[in-house]
Amino acid sequence: MSALTLSGTPRRVRSLAVAELKLLVRNRTAVFTAVGLPVLSVLGLNAIGIGEEGDVPVAALAVIMLAGFSLLYVVYYNLVTAYVARREEHVLKRLRVGELTDAEILAGTALPSVVVAVVQIVLTWAVAAVAFGIDLPVNAVLILAGLLVGVVVFVLLAAVSTTFTRNVETAQLSTLPLLFACMIFSGIIGPRDSLPEGVQAVAQLLPLSPLVDLIRLGLSGVAPDGDTVDFAASWTEAAVPAVIAVAWVGLGVWAVRRWFRWEPRS
């Protein structure tokens, strides 16, 4: 790939992302969600006392929960509707005629949702630190790795989910199975180690589970099995979630290349 192509890619992605961001900012609900949800989540946890007696501090629990919900709704669900809307409006088809590559189109469309999710997580961290106090992370690299791989996985899953989503209205149904499974079994609303062993074995393979495991390890040193580990041991405990996450990335790339539709279904 030429240097000219490399230098042009950020510019093209940025231009498309700015256009998408303008559409997103016009949605007042999305803006309120990005700013208000972190504050409300932390206040809610404080009010009901979740996490005060567990191994994971309440501040870390707030960050983990918000990170999970942000990836599921702000990134995954929003992008399914965005990709489907652009496809049915022939926007994706027209963009492919220009100089944008397929990857740039998908990335540019996804970038605003990713930015909103990151803003939510950072604000949650800040509010939780003020409200509860927050200790230094056990392993900050694992936190960043978990967030990065989580974003990539759910952008890819959003693109894949458009293959069986006929229009924007049906996105609520087509995304429901993955949303439900991840919310219930990935550990964002309850510890996964409290599930039956057979269910735990399957639940750890869900696409959100590696993110939850890596962030929890990085923030508080709590491993998937509930044990508390130090910095050195956290790398060993991160091996299995990392492998699962990379497998989801590979599967997502393969599925997008094979099944993603650029033209309207009708």
Automatic annotation (TrEMBL):
Main location per the UniProt record: membrane
Keywords for the protein's UniProt record, in alphabetical order: Antibiotic resistance, Cell membrane, Membrane, Transmembrane, Transmembrane helix, Transport
GO MF, any single term: ABC-type transporter activity
Domain named ABC transmembrane type-2: residues: 29-259
InterPro entries on file: ABC-2_transporter, ABC2_TM, ABC2_TM_bact-type, ABC_2_transport
Any Gene Ontology biological process: response to antibiotic
Location of this chain's protein in the cell: Cell membrane; Membrane
Transmembrane domains' residue ranges: 30-50, 56-84, 105-134, 140-161, 173-190, 238-256
GO CC field: ATP-binding cassette (ABC) transporter complex
Domain of life: Bacteria
UniProt topology in membrane: Multi-pass membrane protein
Alphabetical list of PANTHER family matching this protein: DOXORUBICIN RESISTANCE ABC TRANSPORTER PERMEASE PROTEIN DRRC-RELATED, TRANSPORT PERMEASE PROTEIN
Family statement: Belongs to the ABC-2 integral membrane protein family.
Protein name: Transport permease protein
Originating species: Jiangella alkaliphila
Higher taxonomy: Bacteria, Bacillati, Actinomycetota, Actinomycetes, Jiangellales
